[in-house]
Amino acid sequence: MTATIVPPATTTEGAQVRRTAPPIPITRIVTVELRKMFNTRSGFWMLVSIGVLSVISAGSVLIFAPDSDVTYESFTRASGFPMSVILPMIAILAVTSEWSQRSGLTTFTLVPSRGRVIGAKAIATLLVGLGSVAVAFAVGAVANVAGSALAGVDAVWDISMSMAPQLVLFNLIGMAIGFTLGVVLRNSAGAIVGYFVVSLVLPGILVLLAQVRPWFEDLQPWIDWNETQVALLEGAMDTGEEWAMLGSTTIIWIVIPLLVGLLSLRRSEVK
Amino acid sequence: MITVESLTRRYAGFTAVDNVSFTAQPGRVTGFLGPNGAGKSTTMRVMVGLTAPTSGSATIDGVRFADLPNPGLEVGVLLDASAQHAGRTGHEILTVAADTMGLPRTRVAEMIELVSLTPTEAKRRVRNYSLGMRQRLGIATALLGDPKVLILDEPANGLDPAGIRWMRDLLRGYANQGGTLLLSSHLLHEIEVIADDLVVIGNGKIVASGTKDELLAAAGTLARSTSPRDLADALQQAGIPSTLAGDGSVRTDADPARVGAVARSAGITLTELRSAEGAGLEDMFLSLTADTQREGVAA
Description:
The complex is a heterodimer.
Chain A: H1 26-38, H2 41-64, H3 72-100, H4 104-110, H5 114-151, H6 163-185, H7 188-212, H8 214-217, H9 220-223, H10 225-234, H11 240-267
Helix pairs in contact in A: 1-5, 2-3, 2-5, 3-5, 3-6, 3-7, 5-6, 6-7, 6-10, 6-11
Chain B: E1 2-11, E2 14-24, E3 29-33, H1 40-47, E4 55-60, E5 63-64, E6 75-78, H2 90-101, H3 106-114, H4 119-122, H5 131-143, E7 149-153, H6 161-176, E8 180-184, H7 188-194, E9 197-202, E10 205-211, H8 212-217, E11 221-225, H9 228-237, E12 242-244, E13 249-252, H10 256-265, E14 270-275, H11 280-288
Parallel strand pairs in B: 3-8, 3-9, 6-7, 7-8
Antiparallel strand pairs in B: 1-2, 1-4, 4-5, 9-10, 11-13, 11-14, 12-13
Helix pairs in contact in B: 2-3, 2-5, 3-5
């Protein structure tokens, strides 16, 4: 009888048996990053303050505003006002705490692709922004119903379909500016100070410059992102030129610095 | 297995890690030694992808760390126990890590128990942790994914004596089960007790590497005698250079058998004769890194 000798398969001889772990899905990283935004003491209180302040803010309109101001717009604007300050801070800390608190050492060893981590943070930030604005609209609606009943007037639903997206965009741009500062500076204190500089100090300087240098006057709205922010907040963006200005300020203040920041972030050392 | 090949990391003006090559084998504890600023931590950061190498490579079982699909399940890393968000609880930090790796949440409680943190401590924020507690939390994070490779930078730092003993037993058990363990420490006694292999680095360069037994055998012999000066003289006459230490011990590079023979023929009574293992690692460390020590300790 003849036996065929089958040579042993020359596969993994000598090589270590590896566990073939599936890669970490981006949805999981987004979920984790969302959790990380609110499972610290500061993150938790920022979340609470968004809820509390928007109710207080809408409530104060209810108490102090004249009957003519008992409208959906004024309630929503009031309940959204605290968010326009807090949301950029949340966006900043989502990025910078990895460096300022040094938790990045763990984060980037568990997920070595820094691009994925920052991308997940961006998505998580976007979700928080959308969620918060939804809260502002909801609180505004409740306050409007309650307010008009108390004042004994008919509820006025005066937020148009063109105005609502602009209010959403207003908050998202504020967060994007904060996020960008976080990516570029990677330092909590620096980025927060930076945010107040570009949102409070810079517009004044640009306006002043436009006043003393006539050639800059036409240029100023294309550079000053606060100019378009004000229009968005009013829900008053209606010309193509205004949207083009928004595009220009977005490129100058978000797209370019974000790209530069991401490039340096991916190469930098995490210590 | 961890393989480091010709690894170099240069910063503007100086070379932190200079052409470093070594391996850490499975089932063994590899001790990574060197004075402050010798390049240990930089080497470890390059291994786990936090710092990019200028040239050379570091791989885990042949794969770059950054290319591992889910690194937490394959390599446990503890580089700095204090590098955690101070406003998070220990429990949260482990939960976040477990979620990232895709592990069941039950793993978190298991790890907390394994590293002997009480459930109350786990619910406290890391801001309020002592260094020893942070170290335990860091070990828990590293072991969470049940990895086959561990990279730990100064894990015994800040632990009390009982904690150090506990850590030693834990790590020894880990290596005995086939795990690969790379451990850096300044605590020479710790390394001496636990390590099987040693890699000594100074000024970014490897100054010695091999098994602990090999390296310590080179550390020579320690002898004590009722008349140490006579012993030193006798060794001198036999052509064996020796040093007479202040505590009355005589050290030499010769092996113990030769020292014993010299002492017998000279009629000197020895009260102690052994390879200089006890203090050996410290001596070896200081002599190997003498050029790179800040204090300029004489070898």
